[in-house]
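Feature request disguised as a bug report, sorry. It would help if multi-protein outputs had a clear separator. Right now it looks like this:
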Amino acid sequence: MELRHLRYFRAVAEELHFGRAAERLHIAQPPLSQQIRQLERELGVPLLRRTTRSVELTASGRAYHDRVVQILAAVDEAGEQARRIAAGAEGVVTIGCVGSATYSLLPQLVRALGESLPGVEVVVRGEMLAPAQLAALTAGQLDVALLRPPVNQADVVVETLRRDPLIVAVPSGHRLAGRDELEVGDLLDEDFIAHAGQGRSVMNGVVTAMCADAGFVPRVRHEAMETSTLVTLVAAGLGVAIVPAPTAALDIAGVRYLPLTDAALGVDLLAARRSDHGTPLIANVMEVLRAQAAGTGAIRLG
């Protein structure tokens, strides 16, 4: 038995006329009749009651037709699903994201993916530091990683999405909170709250290098793995922090965000994916991601 036998039978069962069914199937009537008889022989039961004037379904034929419709619908849907997956319009994508982009980019990205690729399930892992994302990417636990440079892995493809300025988060009641902008040197005598050090966060090294260029070593009193925790500690008055500008989207009471006078100070936001994972789905996700990243650069400070 082949699928064509089921399609032939469905046409005859719905038309109840061999001539019309043959026209619908674009085949001649005699071969169609032969195929239906062959199907009945294989099943061992009559499906049709034929007379010189009419064709009717037997009780077995009616039951068989109901199941055939379901089977063919499932086969057709399976084919459609295979084509959607091949086109990158269906599947599951897991996206990792550094803290600052989690608040500014990720919500818009997930909404845009839902609108552009409604057949794609998006799994999000936010507040991930860059080294953890790269490890998850290599292990196949992430499909796309949104992180900060550097990325030095031969099996990972990287592209720059945008450059984020660096800003200073200070407690609302801090002596510097009334300023319109700051220089890195203004933070010489301040306690710092920093992202986790010892290679766990790119931002820790960025801040250390900035302060060294300004002639001092930052006095780090607290470290945090998550950007939200870092800003919360600033709000508690435990110190100041230098963070990427999109962090300002995390609107926590008790914090004021101030720009730095040196507009050249910033960090890139990268999209990374495995070099052996260039599927149509990832290509579609990247297209949406690029558009969203380009439109989320403006962050209001205050």
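(second protein starts here, but nothing in the output says so)
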Amino acid sequence: MRTVHVVTHPEATHHVEGVVGGWYDSVLTAAGLRAASAAADALRAEVPADARAEVITSDLKRAAQTADAIAERLGVWPESDPRLREKSYGEAEGRPQEWLDRRFVPPPADGDRMNHHEGVPGAETRGQLAARIYSAMDDILARPAVHQVIVTHGFALTFVVAAWIGMPYGALGPVSFRAPSGSITVLHEDDFFHNRQVVRLGDMRHLA
């Protein structure tokens, strides 16, 4: 039996400054820190007090700050995994969003969306992002844990969930699971049928 809680980091400085995130190492705003604390309280209420939970996080500061709040509340040390980072936007990172918008080449409706280059030097393709997230999830799910918390980013969450349900690489081109900043997605696998469920996607009740 396994439950995985996937947290998308809450509001960070790049959100309010209107600049491109990606690997740009922004930090949580004051509102983001409050939201991280609320997520930590919500997870403490869901994870049994006598259970040990693992916290695995993207190494970018805004995710690491979120993970620190959660890990402290759960009484564990967070583990960092750079494979859980957001998609890289290359030269656009840290620049105004409109700079990226002028150069962005949207993917085709059909065809090879996974290897499509979006027109910005140094940016990852969708396929490169998917490959590293799937690699991270293979390692995370190989661990004999009952309760795991994964702290990642909004676009990266799509591939965390896709890896959880075993979606094949060839089906990833158009897939998108939407989860707001600061939300909690709950994944569960039972110990009889070993079915993998998406119990809640992008839950925001703890921020109400």
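Even a blank line would do. Unrelated, but nice: The first strand starts at residue 2 and ends at 8.
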